[in-house]
Predict the structure of Fructose-1,6-bisphosphatase class 3.
Amino acid sequence: MSNTHEFTAQELKYLDLLGERYPTIQDVCTEIINLQAILNLPKGTEHFMSDLHGEYEAFLHILNNCSGVIREKVDLVYGDKLSEKERSEICTLIYYPEEKLRMLKQEGVVCDEWYKETLYQLIEVCKITASKYTRSKVRKALPKEFSYIIDELLHAQPDEDNNQLIYHSKIIDTIINIDNGGAFIEALATLIKRLAVDHLHIVGDIFDRGPHADAIMDLLIDHHAVDVEWGNHDILWMGAASGSEACIASVVRNSVAAGNMATLESGYGISLRPLAMFAHETYGGSSQKEITMAIAMILFKLEAQVILRHPEYGMEDRLLLHRINYENKSIEIDGKTYALTSVDFPTVDRDSPYELTPAERRVMDGLAEDFNRSEKLHRHMQFLYEKGSIYKRFNQNLLFHGCIPMNPDGTLMRVVVDGKSVSGRELMDLSEKIARQAYFSPRRNPRKREYADYMWYLWCGKKSPLFGRAKMTTFERMFIEDKEAWEEKKNPYYQLYNSEEVCRMLLREFDLDTPFSHIINGHVPVRAKEGESPLKAGGKLIVIDGGFCQAYHRTTGIAGYTLIYNSHGMRILSHEAFENTEKAITENRDIKSHSDVFETQKYRVMVMDTDIGNNISNRIYDLTLLLNAYRQGVLVPRGRTKQE
């Protein structure tokens, strides 16, 4: 920029406000130097995970071992100095510092010498983990109670008389002598994990199937840098919190059918007792089978009511209850007749099959009230709205859970949403807008129910970008043995995404067609045991659903993926099944992971190449304008500065 600049009135107004933060010429110069230095650092490490489905223990362990990065750092520092067993001990201590310390104390291992040796080991691991960041960023990540001490220890340098090293040794001795070694180890372990992963992306489906989605949400809320691309299971819970009765019934049915009632009852305080009592009175029992039947029949009716209110959804083929032939114990679906395993549906009125009985209405009213009153549920859903979105553009990559609906010929499928015919990015944007209106619009809003209905559509609608299938066959799976009826035909997207040309077209739709851009997807489990690769279209698209949920382990042959994108390139880790936390602590068991580097950058990716770098560059431009305004005398510095 030239030294002479003609400032507009708007620029001067903005620069005057900016000058409040940088009141002198030297303040501006210092900040420009700092920001320019940050641009030339390696980019932070990003981790991508999807389809967690409530598998809390496995997710917690992968968060703690940072998808294997901690072990890599320990091996890098101590690979030729310590045995594998000793390195595993260090790793486990970093993963579970409080629990591991307690166990080692009980075994009589912990003493002053052990503390001293362990603290030095952790400091060395911490140094290498912090090496790619500015001292300022590391300071911001430091635990407050030990921030000054850790900062000193991380930057120890030998001098002529080793005075500084002696000084640091005395610090460690003091920590041990005042019985603060355990707390200091916990602080170092926390910092190492905090620095190992700069940003975490969860590409959808935190909820359902597994037992502790609520505990996963608590972990994510405490995470330093995370975003969530909503999956259809997430949007279902968000719809339930928004008041959609069809979503509420679906959440309850999914939880009961998966034997996962603890998440609802213990996690969110939603009582299933009235439903269990109703199941006992109506279906002759209150076991999982009868409760599932009771809520499923309520669900089928509520879904039908949504479909009848919205002919634009084009889902009349899912109105099934009136098609039942009770005499022949059969039903006609898509022009074919299937035998039913049961037609014992005592709550279905053949003349008005989609109306709830008074008893069913009381059950639903109670569930709706519990969902509305659950403080923890709404805290978690508000986090999903704050940190989440249907898609995200981040560092030239496009992240979304499900699909971008497409036609067989490779064109974008048009969908009628809120009276508009939309496709591609416009469909995603409008869907997200309605999802936010469903939760945040006031109850008195006459369109509140309409917005809530669309949340159910996003969960299972035939053209939903989060679902990606022509239909959800819940009824068929419950009452038809012929598995042909269970088929849920995928959107053509899931064939077309093997084409690099198609993926580039989709990236252009989101203004992201660069040589470094990728689509990062979840939702559909990769059948790794059958040789399927998570890499599609020559690596332009990566499917990272590797089956965290135990129910999918047989399908995928693995127990989840983590995609890692650091300054050197991209690699994907496939994880083997996690045993349990107790064995991880007592036996130093880690999750075995297999790494596949599939894209290496010719030149190291720096902060200047990222979204953060772009923001910093814009900030430098603004500060350069302010500097020129000061030097040209257009604005007067608010404080004293040295004459230049």
